[in-house]
Amino acid sequence: MKKTLLASVLGLGLGLASFSAMAFDDSVSLAVDGKPLVIQEVSGRVLGNAEGTQAVLVDDIFAGQGKKAVPGYQVMFMGRTSSVAVEAKKTPDGKYVDDRMIHRGVKAAVGIPVVNGKMDLANAKALNVALISDENREFKEGEKFRPRGEQLVKKDAKISNVKLSVKQLNLPDVKETSGGGIVYSLSFDVDGRKVVSTGNSTFRDWNIAKAAMGERLFKVDERVMKAQK
Questions:
Q1: Which of 95, 97, 98, 210 has the maximum number of C-beta atoms within 10 A of its C-beta?
Q2: How far apart are CA 216 and CA 114, in angstroms?
Q3: Model's pTM, two decimal places?
Q4: What pLDDT, on a 0 to 100 scale, did the predictor assign at position 22?
């Protein structure tokens, strides 16, 4: 997909949000069929260049699956509860790195149109969604870590009634790994279960995804596209 580097704005290299002062709360919620699941934080990422050093503008946020090509940005937010096992994961080159375990949470890849150089939040669309829950994972007394949650948005899952609203979005500086913030509401049904998540929070963890990861992280899910108006 053709991509164009963003013009530098105030030295940040990001033209995605208003740079007026924004104050965000530290709140995020997730409920499945009305049952609240404890969520700790909101994290996020934006699609970037090959090196993962600059955000990029794509020529079509829908990757050819929309009614027409819409230029804009691909952003992801994740409301989640996780824990980290220190140096517990071995990489292919033999190094040991931290292993982040997601216990419960919701995720959405979002396409944000850009009109006349400005982000059009009112027309932001969900590209794909995910839901992880550890409701059915057993945690025994004395264990050190809770088990990972289960991905409930499976390849054969039925998704309907997708609704997304992004009221505010402020992305961190390109060199920052946290900061900025988002105000969102997201709801959808998966296999008949109602999922509702809201957030008004800074990004606890933030990164610019390398271009090579774009097709996987921001892949357009036809089910999600058809399920939102």
A1: 210
A2: 22
A3: 0.86
A4: 65
